[in-house]
Amino acid sequence: MMKKTLIFILCLLIVLWFCGPVLLILIAALTPSAEYYDLARLVPTKLTLTHLESLFVRLNGWKATLISIQTALLSIVISFAIGLPAAYVLTRYVFKGKNLFRLTILLTRSFPVIIIGVPLVTLYLRIGIADSVLGVSLAHSSMILPFIIIISSSILGGISVEYEEAGMVFGLTRFRSFLRITLPLALPGFAAAAIYAFVLSWNEVFISAIINLTNRTLPAHILNTAMTSPDYFKFAAGTVMALPAMIFIFFTRKYLMSMWGISLK
Amino acid sequence: MKRTLLFGLCLSLLLAVAFGQLNFVSTQFHPATEREYFEGSLLPDFVKLTNVKVQFLPLTYEEASVRLRAEQAANRVTIGLFAELQGGMELMASGGLLKDISGVTFSDRTFISTFEKYAHGYGIKQFVPWLQATFVMVINKKAFDYLPKGLTKEDVLKGTSKWTYQALLEWAKNIYDKTKMPMVGFPENPQGLFHRFLHGYLYPSFTGGQFVKFDSLDAVDMWAYLKELFKYVSPGSSTWSFMSEPLMRNEAWIVWDHTARIPAAVRADPEQYIPAPVPAGPKGRGFITVLVGLALPKNAPNEAEAVRLIDYLTSATTQFDILEKTGFFPVIEEAIGVIPAGPNKVLAEAVVAQAGAPDAMVSFIPGLGPKGGEFTAYYREAFRRIVYENEDIKKVLQDIAPKVYQTVKESGATLPQPDASLFH
Lengths: 265, 424
Description:
Chain A is built from twelve helices and no strands.
């Protein structure tokens, strides 16, 4: 009984340690501006949705949220469509310059975005995909792709090639063998990689701001505003920014540990 | 039903194409309350008056600069109007990104001549002056109970010759000795504007220039002074970005900040939180004037609509309205003549007293463009090493000075005031 109580208290402390700051941010976001600076009160006497309403409704944060969700999902689709075949090749085939290729993929992340900003937007304007969800998604995909390839190849590397070969012995093609055998085994790991991709796209500001003038993503739309506003607005913006990402992670959380291959054991 | 929907869709598309939309990119009015006012009140009033649809797009200087350069390179300009500080405009003009707007004039208003002068450069009129702002001190009236001998409240509020940095030090020490609390505050947080205090206030007041005398003997004295002052500066300063907050939380009594970042406190209680001019140093009363202008990018679309918006934004009534709502001050004589009563009047009086002081020394923020961050980072580095890490002042200044000069040189910026006046 004593042991159970101790475990319960320990669990409670851990939950408080992680959820406490989130709760405090939420309370600060809901505190009326007049009470926020009242040092005598730690907990506000009433809660208000004014700051959230301001950011989400009056400053059109809801539109930006929709664009951010579309952008993040499209970025995941594009980066998986290109990244998965690349990861498969890196895992299953031996070829000259394989390690160099792996290194080169990561090197693409070493270019400062501000340097490629002007040529990128110029190109986008010329081919007519500036100010569109597709344009930002493509740019985000190029940022996410190296991670998808590296993570996916390590996940695929954890699944024995013999399963696929067995499938092929029984008449499946290589593609169908991947689809029917390897993919279901690797799916939790891919889902975790997708969460990572979602968070990367969700938090990106500079590229979104320069490519999309009118259809702006949430961080591009509110980050500067939040950082130059009073504390309670910062907390309100923090809540608006964090909530959709937290909901997404909540529903896919069981896959998160799989990124490191735990589900395959 | 489907037909009605289709008709509605076609009509909205046609309207959008027929009337176009003016994209107004601004590096100003980013804080939530300012942006709400701009998008929810100021621009809708303009739309009602003119039927011109305006999209307000707040971007940082870096974002706006990349986008403008890309639009020029692709020959597809979508930004119709651009608002930025004088220094940034100068850099944009040096890159050939702005249109010459010497033909844009308004007969019913007189722009302040100093600002008109600084709107020209690189052979063109780069922008129409729009708004001005500066940085002042704000003092919690409790602090006046601890004034040092020889300094009166009147001296502080009027910016007399007795209101000096030395007097500020004695005042801060007096408060500390009697209350055991360091009650001077600066917005030192990276989002704060403390670097402006270093290069635009202290340096000119002690050396006569913002950076040309970066490692001079006068500068050594200045840093020694700052080191002494920081014994009485609240350690919370490193976390503050807007000084209205610590003022209202009673964590600092004597603060310095941008006029657009303190109205919350002054409006909350104008009798408790009193704006005042900055102190003077051995070389004068250095202070920054922030000048915001409105410019047309080269090959900008919707030019006629953009000029109508400039006309609206620089009219006396709009300038009053902006002062009341945001704390930015007017730039046309017609508007300055009548200062509105209330907290804004107190604030305006401090700005006027500062600018009108006999020893006033105007500093313009150097137009370094993307190098601006690097430039201010060196001042912050010097501050950190000298004040917090206790390094030898001369060594730090000799170490950083070449980097500062190199940054300014690489940016291609012209020498700002008051540095330029040192050579005339």
